[in-house]
Amino acid sequence: MEKIIKFDTVKQYNEHERVETLHPLVSVVKFDETPKLLKLRAYFGLYAIFLKLEKCGDMTYGCQPYDYDDGTAVFVGPGQIYAVDGGKDLVVSKGYGLVFHPDLLKGTNLAKVIRDYSFFSYEANEALHLSQKERNSLVEILKKITEEISLNLDKHSKTLIVSNIELLLNYCMRYYDRQFITRSNVNKDLLVRFENLLKNYFESDIAENLGLPSVSWCASELNLSTNYFGDLIKKETGITALDYIQSKVINEAKIRIFDKEKSLNEIANSLGFKYQQHFTRLFKQKTGITPNEFRGSLN
């Protein structure tokens, strides 16, 4: 099995990239100044943002193929595995890497909100695809961070470095929101696959064996992380992925309730409910009446 490199400190990452460590908790690496083997499998105990200005090998992230091309940003959070396989030759790639230790954020506003940047927890296959103008904006912020790191540290250094990191993350959040729109064809194709996934779920005996389809199960089947999948469904439909799934469950329930030869308990079990009362509660929550009342209204 291929060896996994561990990057628990900024210094360890810098040594791998063959650059000097100017700050113990944060570093910006310009890749075209550091020739390297583009074959890497690494565990990160750090936050990392890789701005790639060209495609440089097949990428996996969270053990899944990554939707990745030139002009993209990739985000890695502490505890995640990141891998690139670009062959065995020593090459010069174009782009930037920003790594920072969680300790850099202690006592700052960013420490409180870092979890809100959900792209750090994406474990599957959606990079941030950037226009030239967007790339330029991020590069300018990275240059500001680099400038601060290269200065002698003073009482303002941490505030200015973290503020610029937060600014960069906010721009990335804006660009991700834009991406949900500009990549609408990809998103709509995903919705079709989601619909078919739920259709097959209820047409087979999966529900009886696994229970109700969860958001995380659906995301995994579609090779997406739970967070990205949830964000995409909300953007495309205006409701949460859980609400979307529950609406499909209720629609399927209404169809099955027509079959009066089956008891409501049998219907509940076939839909994946462990207990009939859970089925009754959700049905009434979504429709305003109980399954039994709905069946009676069909007479």
Notes on the protein architecture:
By secondary structure, this protein is α+β, with helices and mostly antiparallel strands. The chain has 2 domains: 5-182, Sandwich (Jelly Rolls); 185-296, Homeodomain-like (Arc Repressor Mutant, subunit A, Orthogonal Bundle), CATH 1.10.10.60. The chain contains 12 helices and 10 strands. It has helices at 10-17, 109-113, 132-150, 157-182, 184-203, 206-210, 215-221, 226-237, 241-257, 264-271, 276-287, 291-296; strands at 5-7, 26-30, 36-44, 47-52, 58-61, 64-65, 72-76, 80-91, 95-100, 128-129. The chain has a 5-stranded mixed sheet with strand order 1-3-8-5-6, covered by helices on one side. It has a 5-stranded antiparallel sheet with strand order 2-9-4-7-10, sandwiched between helices. A hairpin with a 2-residue loop joins strand 5 (58-61) and strand 6 (64-65). Helix 3 (132-150) runs antiparallel to helix 4 (157-182), helix 9 runs antiparallel to helix 10 and helix 9 (241-257) crosses helix 11 (276-287). The radius of gyration is 24 Å and the shape is elongated. Mean pLDDT is 83; it is low at 56-68 and 87-92.
